[in-house]
Design a protein that fits this description.
Layout (H helix, E strand, L loop, with lengths): L27 H6 L5 H14 L1 H17 L7 H5 L3 H11 L15 H21 L8 H14 L4 H6 L1
Helix pairs in contact: 2-3, 2-6, 3-7
Amino acid sequence: PPKKNTTKKPKKKKTKKTDDEGDISVSIYDQLMKRGVAVADITREWKLDYEKNSDPASLAVINLVVQAAFGPHVVISEDFYAEGELEAAVEFLESKHKNPESADYTIISKKPAVKRFKNNFIEFWSMLITEVKDQVLFDGYFSDHVLGWIYGLSQAQHRALRHTA
């Protein structure tokens, strides 16, 4: 019998997509879904992004909560965030997800890949608070914007959003 070609093609390196400013556009949610991810690196990278430009970094953390509740395809737009339209954003999210008592959402799912995400999600928040407790946490912007939005999301009618926030 003829021999099979055992020569393997070299794998292409996957590169992270960046926007015009060089910031990584892969969401925190997507990063935390990966197996073997270094959550400490994600947290440090987020802090550096926050120190460079607090608005997009803050929105990334808020979208982590939203995506953990509704999945990777759902995000708060820059417009909603920039205008401080928390109530409008919550109404929009709830209107898109009609069942407020949805039984299965990312943070409580029993699927193996999602269990890994849940552990990474918890570790991320723990490390984030540790990383920012001395400077960022009390800079006024973080507490007013990030914590304010998370508090507002935790008041939502939709259980997945309320529970995740």
